[in-house]
Every structure is written in structure tokens, then in C-alpha cells.
Design goal:
Length: about 400
Amino acid sequence: MSFTSAESRWADVRLVAGGRAIAVCGELLAATTLALVLQSAGHGGLAVAGLLLAATLPIALLAPVAGRLADRADSRTLLVVVGSAQAVICATLAFTTHPVVIVALVAALACGLSITQPTLSALVPRMVRQADFARASGIVQSASQIGMLAAPALAGVLVGQTGPRVPLLIAAVSYLSLVVIGLLLRTRRHGASAADRAVTAAFRLRDDRTLAVMTVAVAAVVAGVSAINVFDVFFVRETLGASTTVYGLVSASWSAGMLLGSPLGSRIPERRRTVGTVLALLAAACLAVLIGGATAGSAWVLIPAWMVGGFFNGLLNVSTNVLIVSRVRPEAHGRAFSVYGASVQAAGIAGFFVAGPLVELFDPRVLVAGAGAAGLLAALACVPLVRTTREPRVTRDSPAPVAG
């Protein structure tokens, strides 16, 4: 692992954390609002699945380009330009009612997200010393969970009281936090040198067996459980008969659990940051979904189950971030985060394709519990791969790979 800061720049870490909290809140506020709009307008699972697909497909498709851009372009320029564009697009969504146009604009927002996510992720290792990275990652993750925690409840209340326009305009303003981050951060990744571009071009996630197995494991589970994002609005609103406000609270409970888990993720001993730990955390989160979906008699019962699942999810996010940064040369951090994120998003897309038709055919309770069971089985199926993942870490002093 290599870090450029002699001393950790905690002011920059706090700035990124605060900006991410605001931006994530805006992203999820817009997504939850639009899901409620489509459901309330009588559109079925296919429409909601289409919305979620639009929010994820560009991230998967643009990963090769976005990752290289995050490593080669100036980070300040990327955050300012893309953040401004996302604010304009989200403001346009506030005045859009046609479902096809909504899906198209959500896809445009996702194109920007495919760039800003790896850009910010690659900046954090530059802000702190090696010994402080897990803590810094936990702070940023916790701030993101605060944004995620606030957004669903805020969307439920605002949609119920004012309609969809107000929350979407608030979401549009939140994207400007990325512009503020870009302008105020002292830490900055500038345009890459020829040597850095060679490292980035030669990077292949599959060449590191530890990262490859970790990515396969997480993606396999996400493929099994991503459909819950389509199922839960029907499960909570129709099967359990909850209001939009209660739906927002249930959705927020997962983020509340993540908020509790993320700070503790930095305390996992270094020797425990392994693919085996990742699998255990994945299985625990899926088990919480299975139990909650199968037993809940009211929407309120889902809250503790979702909090437990989110807790393990928070531990997982910090663990995967540390593994990626510890095994990839810093010149390729942007591409590494982009490729990993895209792989997980692509797996989620498979779940979205299946989810829409299933909502029309089966009871939502069966679908939610079945998705949890599928994720649990996927995690267990990856256990045999764990024994083959012991490899040395990559540092700045390691020989750079030769492109070819």
C-alpha cells in the first residue's frame, strides 16, 4: 500500500465525508422519490426495475472509460464539471412526468456517478497515512450512511406532504456538494504521467487472485439479492399495507445498521481482512434478509432485521475498500474501484432483469425471502475459492506491470 501524505489530512477527510453524506442523500432521495412516483401512478414491477436498471447499467458499461478518466484527469475538474451537470439533470427530473424520460434522465445521472465514485474513492488514500486509511474509510462510509439514512425517510415524508417536485429539487441542490468538494480539497490527483498511464493501462483486477475472488463473491451475492430493491416497495406498501412514510423508515433502517457497522469496520484486525471475512459478512447480511422477509407480519418488524443486515453491510464496505487499496498500486486506484464497482453493478443488473416479471407472478413476501436465501447460497458457494487467495500485497515499490 502506498500513501502520499506524510501526515494525514483529516480536514480533507471530513470534507469528503460531509460532501458524500449530502450527495448520497440526494442520490437516494431522488431514487426513492421516483420509485414511489412510479408505484403510486400504477406502474408495476417492470417500471421500477427499469428505473433501477437505468441507475446501474451505465456504471457497469462505462467502467473501463470512467476508471481511466479518474486516474488520468484532474480530480478537481472532474468533480466540478460532473457535479454541476448532475445538478442540472436532477432539476430537470423535478419537472418530468413521462416514465421513459424519467428513466433516460436517471441513466444520465448514473453516467456522472460512474466517474465521481472512483474519483472520490481514489482520493481518500492520498489524504492519509497507511495506518490511518481504515479509520478514514470508516469515517467516509459512516457519513455516506448518514445520507442514506436520512434520504428514504425524508422522501417518504416529502412525497406524502408536498408531492415529488420538492424532494427532487432538494436532490438537485445536493449534487452541488461535489462541486464544493472539488474546489476546497487540498488533496488532488492531477493528470497522470506517462509512467502512471502505463500502470493504469496494464491493470487487470483478475490478475490479483485475492481481489478477483472477493469480487466474484460480492457480485454473486448481489446478483441474488439485488432484486429486493424492486420487491420491497411492493412488499412493504402492498403486502404489509404500510404508508409511504413507513416505507421510507423501513428503507432507512438498513442504512442505520450500516452507520453502526462502518466505524467498527476499521477495527477489524489486519490479519482478519481476508476474503473469508468478506464471505462471512455477506452470508450474515443475507441471513437477516431471509429471516425478516419470511417472518415479518408488519412493516415495523422489518426494521430490526434490516438494521442487522445493514450492520454487516457496513463492516463489509470498509473491508473491501481496505483490501482494494492494499493490493493495487496507487496510480490505478481509480480504475480498481471502478472495475470492482462495475462488476458488482453488473451482477445487480441480472437481478433487476429477473425481478420485474417475478413481481407480477409471485407474492412479494416469497420473493424477498427467496432473494435472501439466494444470496446466502451464493456466499456459501464461494467458500471453496477462499483457500486459493493467499498472495503478497502490491506497493508503490513493487515492479510496475508491463502493458501489452
